[in-house]
Structure formats: C-alpha cells, structure tokens
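Hydrogenase maturation protease HycI
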Amino acid sequence: MKKMLLAKLKGCKKLVVMGIGNELKGDDAIGIYIVKKLMKHFNEDGEFVNIKNLYLINAGTVPDFFTDILKEINPTHILIIDCALMDKEVGEVKVIKEDEIINYSFSTHTLPLPIIIKYLRKFINAEMIILGIQPKIIDFCPISEEVKLSGDKLVDTLIEIIRELKLTE
C-alpha cells in the first residue's frame, strides 16, 4: 500500500486528507477515525487542521460542506478515506479509481461521492485518491476491531508517507 500511495502522491506539494463517515454507524466511521488519529499525531485537534502543507479534514457525513475550503486551499493532491462496500475481506484497503467509483457503495453522505468529485474537478486540478475500506458492520455500534486494526495500520503508513514527502517541515 505504501509504495502505491507514494506513486500516486508523486510531486505532492500540498496534501488534503479527508475522512468521511458517520461515527454512530460502526465501521462507517473509519475515515473519521483515521483523520482524528493523524490530527492527534501531529498534535492538533478539531474538524479542520492546517499543518504547513498538510490539511486534515474530518468531513463527517457532509464532505460537500468542505468544497469551498478545498477550492481555497487548491491542493495538488486530495486523499479521501471512506468505508466502502467492495465485496473484499473485512478491513481491506483499496485504492479506488475515479472511473470505478460508481461500482462501490460508500457511506452515509449527504451527496454521493462521485458528484462531489465531479464538482471538485471543475475547480481544482488535483490528483484525487480514494481509499475505500471494507466494513464488517454498518450499524449503531463501535468500529469493529478488524476495521480499527486496518485503520491503525493505514495511519502508520500515512505518517511515514507524510514524513517522506516532508509536508510538515
């Protein structure tokens, strides 16, 4: 995963990591969980964090509310992390290509992810990277241990990548 993400982030000068999901619905919260762990690692807290050339956004169920902020930031790369029903093993992380996005079911947003991405494309010339994480359960419960473990591994990988890209220096 690290090698693939580094290839997708080649030439990254300004990165937005956006976590999407509903914290009340089990594994649907994994995108938010990951972004919050990144915020804590970089000693910041909140819904939106700017650390030099790294922007962390907890978009919850309303990623469309952040489109104006994204336009203002004008990042070179946007990494979107969300729970996605992909018929994979529980906790499996997959880079989903934009043209494949229609084939997967994403979490509970106000607007479907393909519409948000299509809108952003009109205003931002950024590399869009969508990471889907296969849930175990999407119900009123905590995140499953399997998905949380997968999220923790992804957080560690993202921290390594951010350091290698020198985005916070």
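thats it. The chain has one domain: 2-163. Helices lie at 2-8, 30-41, 67-73, 113-123, 145-165. bye
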